[in-house]
Amino acid sequence: MTDWGFPFGRLTLDAIPLSDIVTAHGRTELLSGITGSAAAGAAVLGALVALVIVTWKGWWKPLWSDWLTSVDHKKIGIMYIVFSFVMLARALAEAFVMRMQQVVGHDGGGIVMPEHFAQLFSTHGTIMIFFMAMPFLTGMINYVMPLQIGARDVAFPVLNSVSLMLTVAGGIILMVSLVLEPFSTGGWSGYPPYTEAAFNPGAGPDYWIWAVTLSSLGTTFTGINFAVTIYKKRCPGMTLMRMPLFTWTALCTSILMIFAMPPLTIATALLALDRYLDFHLFTNGGGGNMMNYANLFWLFGHPEVYILILPAFGVWSEVFSTFSGKTLYGYTALVIATMAIAVLSFTVWVHHFFTMGQSANLNAAFGIATMLIGVPTGVKIYDWMLTMYRGRVRISVPMLYALAFLFLFTIGGLSGILLANPTIDYQTHNTLFLVAHFHNMLIPGLLFGMIAGYTMWFPKAFGFRLDEKWGYRAAWCWIFGFMGAFFPLYALGLMGMPRRMADYFTGAWLPWTVVALAGAGLIVLAFTFLLVQLRVSVRDRARLAVPVGDPWDGRSLEWGLPAPPPEWNFPALPRVEGRDAFATLKMTGEDLGPPDDGYEDIRMPKNAVLGPVIGALGTGLAFALTWYLWWLALPLAALVPVVLIAQGFRRDTEKVIPAHEVRETWRAFRALAARTPRVSRRAEYTRDNRGHAIPMPQEAAE
Amino acid sequence: MRAAALRWPLPFETSMACAACLASAQAAQADSFLDAAGPVAAAQVSHLRLILILMAIVVVPVFAATPWLVRRYRYGRARGDYRPEWKFSLLFEVLAWGVPFLVVIVLGTILWERTHQLDPYLPVAEAKAPPVVIDVIGYDWKWLFIYPEQGVASVGEMAFPADRPVKLNLTSDTVMQSLLIPRLGSQIYAMKGMRTQLNLAADGPGRFEGRNTQYNGKGFSAQSFTAVAMRPGDFESWVAQARAQGLPFDEKARAALEHKGTKLDLRHALGMPDGTVVHFAAAPTALFDKIAGMKETGE
């Protein structure tokens, strides 16, 4: 290799979206160039505005020392969720452009060129899965799970920061691909041979490979970290069968991450070998076989679906129980169902390619295995309904999402059972019916769950509730927006419209795409309302403050802590004697503090720069590899082991919080609680709710 | 009171049903398998109906009971009892696991049987005549249909006699593709170096849209063709006409096929400015085996 790619590698001026405007022939090419340039401009402008604000306000130092280098699981959790919101904004905008294109492109033409459209569906899928859904749920678990098991942090706090920064690095690569085009056109699954050098020699698939590789590495570490945390860091008395359901789902998701992410890392790495070093693993010729890729990818891809949905199931369990003022129905059944789903998720991957020509025996076996997953999932639905039975149901914002979820997810499950049948799949595969199905599972299932969890735990993290009026508005827009955007896709799929189609000439499809566009518009509005809600809530934080930390009459340990909780979470490790630990404690009038002589010095991990450094190296390496900047890639790659070894020489990694400081903080909190009146659930959404709850059973008895 | 509570889900279900009716009404214009034109698609529709009916057993309770639960146990105006510690009932547990399990057993049995019946590699069960064999090669962004018995080939049009089933052998000379004719039946992937099979049949003469459903580049949306089920005599004359007036399948034709372009681009390359169909007077029979057999020959 004599060509070191200095200085720009294969990067040319064509990579800048503005060049598409200059070279455009005809209206659609021009509009496409404008759309792409506008998106790139928005990304650059957004980054610039952020930089200016941070500089102007003098936030660089706090940003660095309080956030980026922090290894506090709570802060890492919040950063994950902020990141996922940014990525959600972009992927949502892309979805809207695609819906628009399918309306205006019904006679050919439209606002984006077919290759541009293909980049949109590829980035939309890649972002929504790897850089929106995964960070959202990882952030949620990061924040909540250690609090629920009575721990002070995760098992490997620095690794946690590395995971976050690897994920962010992948996200940055995706944002860079907006400004220096093109991204892959091979969809979120990146099937070869289409993504091989023979058919797509450009930078697109390489961007995709490295973004996904970074994210998959981060997620593998996250899985190990969470699983070890749950196995080893539970407080005294917190046996596995006493853990809140959310923690159970976090455990199952972590196990799935550990076993399902490596096949993806390997699949993308092997594809990279094909593209960079002329291997023939998945190529058409030279003995390659793309079916191996399909198997590897879906060996990851199907468990991935449950990595995504299980934490949401955990949130739903907490929501139904908390807002029904009642213990969860069928705890053991729900644990068994969660585990059953996790195990079964590894036995169904072939259903992603029933149409690849394998035998009827094989297809039927995988079809039946797929339908079997419907049994534990159905059990969960019924158990949540039975949690409302004999309860006192408050239709709070999270509960509104939960009720919509029950209806909509059941419809999605029905379409899933249809698709599980190879005979039906032979018709609906690769059509919009499939697209409608998985959005039907992921939006009402995962995304509603995450927004419900965000609404429920936000006051815990920041000390004030999210404004409810805007919360309801956003929820209704999400619900009807979802139905408007995706029910028409079921119809279109049954009418034979394939997915990923930039233009078409079938007039009968047009009305349905118009309805879907309106639905997408409503979803954009819903997202806007979420942002307005955040803005309004920050403004009105005095009215919405819940410093005592239990705004919803919660049941698990985290609700017994101040809002926001101190860095060290628990003044002393709690001793748990049953499920719903905090609900039990509340009934007896006790709190989580230890006896007066029970305070001890607390050792907490110090900040670490490893995470941001690895993140920066990962971003640089991915960019250099994508554009063939070998002169840059080589030293960056060499630095990775150097940095890791250097981390091993760090000795001063812990700080001590003295016992008296802990005692004072906790006493101040208890004094605040003592002078804050307790409120009934009737006052939940009023300014009287300062986070001091009368337990529902006591309220009902009065 | 309970009857009143049950009224809530009905508007929702009614609107769903309306949407479904509307979809199937419009489906007729859009070449949907719901408007089946062959035994395979018809069997798929009947299977779809059967699943929907059976699934009602587990779906309807959710739609009916959720509004009832919310009404009866709504905070502030609850009518039911309050038992915050109630968390288990053997009866409900047996129902929650047992009913879905029984439904899956029934659906699974049907699935096994139908998957074998509709295996795309098997001849269409209802067919009374031997199939017409068509070798299909996927190119970027068009399909080549080769008729080895008749000695002709075509692009953009897949003709066959309506009284005989068709047996398609598929491969691809480029990336992976998937061939689907919704109103006739199943789809199957076409991959280079590999041979897949698809057996279909039409109920009678007609024209049906077919296409590639696997995204393969910018010409993807144009990669469609018309499957034409003809009266037997018409098919004979179609073949005769292709033999007489079709283009020779020479190096120029082959290069034009391999060149990335739609079927319209192909016609332009072959000097036929209008129309969407190309007929070849010869069947390049060795070509299919060469592409499909690439894995075996190690080329």
From TrEMBL, chain A:
Keywords: Cell membrane, Copper, Electron transport, Heme, Iron, Membrane, Metal-binding, Respiratory chain, Transmembrane, Transmembrane helix, Transport. This is Cytochrome-c oxidase. It comes from the Bacteria. Pfam families: COX1. One of its GO terms (molecular function) is cytochrome bo3 ubiquinol oxidase activity. Residues 683-702 are annotated as: Disordered. It comes from Thioclava atlantica. The chain crosses the membrane at residues 34-56, 77-97, 117-137, 158-180, 207-231, 243-273, 293-316, 328-350, 362-379, 400-420, 432-454, 475-497, 509-532, 608-625. One of its GO terms (cellular component) is plasma membrane. PROSITE patterns: COX1 (PS50855), COX1_CUB (PS00077). It is found in: Cell membrane. Gene3D superfamilies: Cytochrome c oxidase-like, subunit I domain (1.20.210.10). Belongs to the heme-copper respiratory oxidase family.
TrEMBL record, chain B:
Keywords: Cell membrane, Electron transport, Membrane, Oxidoreductase, Respiratory chain, Signal, Transmembrane, Transmembrane helix, Transport. One of its GO terms (cellular component) is plasma membrane. The keyword Manganese does not apply. InterPro entries: CcO_II (IPR045187), CcO_II-like_C (IPR002429), Cupredoxin (IPR008972), CuRO_UO_II (IPR034227), Cyt_c_oxidase_su2_TM_dom (IPR011759), Cyt_c_oxidase_su2_TM_sf (IPR036257). GO terms for biological process: ATP synthesis coupled electron transport. Its main location: membrane. Residues 25-122 form the Cytochrome oxidase subunit II transmembrane region profile domain. Gene3D superfamilies: 1.10.287.90, Cupredoxins - blue copper proteins. Residues 129-241 form the Cytochrome oxidase subunit II copper A binding domain. It is a multi-pass membrane protein. This is Cytochrome c oxidase subunit II. It comes from Thioclava atlantica. The lineage of its organism: Bacteria, Pseudomonadati, Pseudomonadota, Alphaproteobacteria, Rhodobacterales.
